Amino acid sequence: MISAKDSAYHPNDPTEWRWTETTPLIFSVPEARVLGNLYVASRPNLGVALSSIAIGQGICRQAYEIDFSDAQMHLPAPKVFTGYELENGLRVDVTDAPHEYRFRYAYKGGDECSLDLTFRGIHRPFDCEDPAENPLLEKPEGHAYDSRLGDQWGNRSAGATHPSGHFNTLGRTTGELILRGKRYDVDCYDCMDHSWSRRTEVSRRAVAYLSACFGPDYGLHMAVPLDLVDGETVYEQLRFGFVVDNGETFGLISAEIGGSTTDMLPMACWVSATDVRGKVHRFSGAAIAGHPYDNFNPSHIAFQCLMRWQTEDGRVGHSELANIFGREFLHARLSRSARLAA
Question: What b-and-e string marks burial along 314-328, b requiring 16 or more CB atoms within 10 Å of the CB?
Fold first, then answer.
């Protein structure tokens, strides 16, 4: 179970240079077709962090079409993870751990972008590594190592020497964004999370993170390994997921996902997911904004879109679907040399 202390750095072996803690936030302005990301990955034992801010409007099929990007590596790592300001101008304050955060940013290179956003969770954070919350951990395949998920990135730690953890929270983000002189009111629902582990940045992994949020009372989040079959993105079996239903959180036990892509961006998607109560949740979505987010991590590309989701009974919500591929995962399947070798 996640508690307030899980917003902070976690105990770890100080000689383990790979120890990493992350905090991403996804936000949007659906009426303006704006999708934004804030990302921090800190390696406190090395004393460095990377941070990326990316904001795109509409469908950007190429990375150079994104409206604003500020990705910086080798920033000094924050001393604490609950209240800090990075050298790139991003300030993060945990105002009510573990489910309320404030994010402020002003681009130091000019006045092209600034923001002030507050995230408030609509439920208790979901602990992906607690069998009491994630029912898939009761099955062998639920905790088996999957190389597509990386070193403790979606894989549970093999031992107590290097523990791992990951919580996800659906919530409401409010505030303002100023993008190239234009001000936007932000009032959206999506997911933020915090992960911690010994993490090796290999690029052979592939996983989809899908959030479908319909308001303060209902939403789903799930992680699903990916494959490429004849160049098409295929969603495989659920790794973990949950639904928030009127303030209560229920683990998912299965999900079927299908969809279509353009230039790897997920343009359409349908989902049928079953929770521990046996309740089935069905919805579909179409992209209204999206871009290849290729600088949040040098070894990965997140082909992400802001989806307009709709349930069978007509509820509409807007939140992100990100198909995240390691670069070597892509190169081994799509490069010219890989095709010739096949």
Answer: eeebbbbbbbbbbee
Residue among 121, 199, 123 at smallest CA distance from 165:
199
Distance, CA of 221 to CA of 24 (rounded, Å) = 15
3-state secondary structure of 140: helix
Burial label for 313, CB within 10 Å (0-12, 13-18, 19+), is exposed
Q: How confident is the model at residue 158 (pLDDT cuts 50, 70, 90)?
A: low
DSSP SS3 for 144: coil
CA distance 70 to 226: 28
Label residue 305 by pLDDT band (50, 70, 90).
very high
Q: What is the β-pairing status of strands 165-179 and 126-127?
A: antiparallel
Residues in the chain: 342
CA 228 – CA 117 distance, rounded (Å)? 36
